[in-house]
Amino acid sequence: MSAAQPATAPPLSLPLRLNLSVMMFLQFGIWGAWFVVFFPYLRGLNFTGEQAGALMGNMALGAIFSTIFAGYLADRLLSSEKLMAICHLAGAGLLYGIAQIQEPGQYWTLFALTLVYALVFNPTLVLANSITFEHVPDGQRDFPGIRVLGTLGWIAAGFGIDAMFASDGKTAAGSNGPLLLAAGLSAALGVYSFFLPHTPPKGEVKGIPFVRALGLFRDFSFAAFFLVSLAITIVLAFYYTVTSDFLAKQCGVKNIGSTMLIGQVCETVFLPLLPLFLVRFGMRWVLALGMLCWGVRYLLFANAGPEGVGFVMAIMGVALHGFCFDFFFAAGFIHCDNKAPKDIRASAQALFSFLTYGVGMWLGSLLCGILVDKYTDPNTKIVNWSEFWMVPSIGVMVCLGVFLLLFRDRPGRIEEPATTEKPPAA
């Protein structure tokens, strides 16, 4: 049934594709402009490692607390494009304020600003997806080709901050320029959002949408998918938290930013191919392939080194980011859209983001820090990276086994229980 859908859906019009593609480009360009260099930027301002880590963790906290409300508003009260505009215009002002703080003594002010920014930015990740799925003729076929522009936006931002703010041997992390660039991009997308396709709320939706999205867990396979997604995102946090430090100290990589962009480049190559894999192999095996790539990546990191085959393994591990993201997270958003009842699709997307970008990333950051301390020699302060990376690699393989055992992709949307309300008396 799902395999026949792409053949019967009408083609995606070029104006709509361009409109949604610009949205995705700016959406992830904002994130990529500041997030990658924020930790070393804070350390350069003499914030402690604990303070910098807590400020970085605010992005995950924002995903935990805000995405559920974004889904509710988009499903019931406010059009998605207007909510996007409000969030990004507010975000522009907050990013500008964050860029002005240069003293560790202003830590709590910066903590408050970064937390509020996380609360207004994270919902836009859900909204960008829900707007796209609402207007394309076939989400499984059309979403990857639009979402890949987000990856290009991230790549462009990475090269842009190096070109504009790195000089005299200093990296872009030595300047507040990336934050100011992100503020400008956020303001641009805030204005542009008013020109996105009109995506009104569904009106009078019975029940609370987010609670109804939780009700989808009655479907055993859907519940298994979500729980495994949570576990996998805990592992994802390891990559974002310590890979730059690992590449520098274990593999001798100098240009960390450009090296890590290899993963995003691979993502742009394979994301447009995702519909072909979904049609050929089905959702179950595509998700399984994405999970397998996570395990292989960390196994490569466990055996990586500064030269020869070890260095090749490190670069291959970075490149696997394209497979890891495309074949699990991008496919996961498509799976949510395919399974949720139409009037709560935004809330189902919000639930997926809540568990992955929110709870999973937050728990992963905490666990990653604990394991780094565990595998650090107290005398030399050197991390045993081989043993460190084996922990998430084994964890992923266990999750893969559980997933293959429990998950089945049945055609059609999940049906909610019929109401038991009695008709009014005559």
Protein model, in words:
- This protein has helices spanning 5-8, 14-44, 49-76, 80-100, 107-135, 139-165, 177-192, 209-214, 220-251, 256-270, 274-302, 308-319, 321-339, 345-374, 385-406.
- It is globular, with a radius of gyration of 21 Å.
- It has 15 helices and no strands.
Total of DSSP H or I helical runs spanning 4+ residues: 15
Q: How many angstroms does the end-to-end distance come to?
A: 43 Å
Q: What ranges have pLDDT less than 50 throughout 5 or more consecutive residues? A: 1-6, 419-424
Question: At CATH's second level, what is the architecture of the largest domain?
Answer: Up-down Bundle
Helix content: over 70%
Reading off the top of the CATH hierarchy, the class of the largest domain is best stated as: Mainly Alpha
Strand content: under 5%
Number of domains: 2
Average pLDDT metric? 84
Largest sheet: none
Number of strands: 0
Give the topology string: H per helix, E per strand: HHHHHHHHHHHHHHH
Outline, from the CA principal axes? globular
Instruction: Output the CATH topology of the largest domain.
Output: Growth Hormone, Chain: A
Classified in CATH, the superfamily of the largest domain is: MFS general substrate transporter like domains
Q: For the CA atoms, what is the radius of gyration? A: 21 Å
Summary keywords:
disordered N terminus, Growth Hormone, Chain: A, 0% strand, 426 residues, mainly alpha
